[in-house]
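Anyone up for a design puzzle?
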């Protein structure tokens, strides 16, 4: 009886070791070749992205400059109205 138990444990242990070894073989990737992008393609896409960002910034700057010019015109108009509605600095007293 003791011998049978020992053989069963040895068989189970061997089977377990074999299962671990075979299972570990499946963990490795099928191909170890790295798929790298072409550096020229990466550079051109980066350049295109940066050019697009620059174009968007220039457009935004033009919009802000137009708004600033409009605000300057409004400010000048308000200043002219304020000056024309002020009474003269020296008033003559009414007698």
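Challenge accepted. My sequence:
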């Amino acid at each position: 009886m003791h011998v049978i138990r020992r053989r069963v444990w040895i068989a189970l242990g061997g089977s377990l070791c074999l299962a671990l070894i075979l299972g570990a073989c499946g963990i490795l990737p099928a191909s170890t070749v790295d798929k790298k992008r072409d550096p020229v393609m990466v550079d051109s896409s980066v350049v295109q992205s940066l050019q697009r960002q620059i174009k968007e910034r220039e457009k935004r700057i033009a919009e802000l400059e137009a708004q600033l010019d409009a605000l300057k015109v409004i400010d000048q108009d308000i200043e002219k109205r304020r000056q024309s509605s002020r009474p003269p600095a020296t008033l003559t007293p009414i007698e």
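A detail worth pointing out: The mean pLDDT is 77.
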